[in-house]
Amino acid sequence: MAFIYDYGLFAAKSITLVTVIALGVITIIAAIARNKMRKGALDITDLSADYQKNKKHLIESLLNKEQRKAFTKEQKKEAKEQKKNAAESTKSRLFLIDFKGGMDAREVSSLREEITAVLTMAKSDDEVLIRVESGGGVVHGYGLGASQLQRIRDQGLYLTVSIDKVAASGGYMMACVAQKIIAAPFAIVGSIGVVAQLPNFNRLLKKHDVDVELHTAGQFKRTLTIFGENDDKAREKFKAELETVHQQFKQFVSEHRPRMDMEQIATGEHWLAAEAKKLGLVDELRTSDDYLLSQFEQKQVIKVTYHNKKGLADRFSHAASLAVERAVYRIIETCKIPF
């Protein structure tokens, strides 16, 4: 009996040890798999080919049987000729990148990958079109976004930015890097200013006899706080920091668009593109669709997109964010607020 007991105890220990090791290995493998799954992928789409395909389909749908037969014959002849002259073709390319930025500017991580990809294959006569849609956000995030666009110009490529809906604050900081800015007439442009706000719960905490201790080394390691008691000195320092950022923002815009009257436009106001054009913030009133349509015949249009694969938590938070955004839009529409 003692032997059986000892053997059973040994077996139980062995099984436990093997189980623990197996769980550890499975955890490591799962972590590696998650990292691999979340690694992004680059998509390259030939929009010119899609354009020609759709154009051909529309033309064919409007022809009768005999006309369609003649058209198909002509298309085959043209395709054969194009294939023959493909090696001698000097058609330049237009690379299209979409940037839709949020408050935290996390989309810049994809933008940098897309721009890097373009720079590895672009030639000196190619053009880059970036469709910017953003109401701004954190300074460091959009500052990095603007620096990414500057890489395109530093490479000697012509950069065009299109604003179909909004490029305000940090969004305009990015847009102004371009040699040319086009915008839809009712797009929102500008907002060259800096804003910051935070609640303070100090009086509420005192009312409930809750103390908050904050220890710092350095006079201005903290200025305004959420839970501590703020004083005028801290407020002045905080305002001074905002003013410093604003001055750098103004200088940055002025360097890229020197003809604008900064005192007139750097007030934090935003304008519709039709008015913004008069102030020099926009060069041309035009949608990105119209601009692309004008380029299809003379350039090969290629869309570059970098997709970050998201985990379950990321997908859930994104869905929740969209739900809140839709709810806000419904409230605005119900209240008939124009913006």
From TrEMBL:
UniProt-recorded Gene Ontology molecular function terms: serine-type endopeptidase activity
GO biological process, alphabetically ordered: proteolysis
Start and end residues of each Peptidase S49 domain: 153-300
Keyword annotations of the record: Cell membrane, Coiled coil, Hydrolase, Membrane, Protease, Serine protease, Transmembrane, Transmembrane helix
SUPFAM superfamilies: ClpP/crotonase
Domain Peptidase S49 N-terminal proteobacteria stretches: 3-149
Name of this chain's protein: Peptidase S49 domain protein
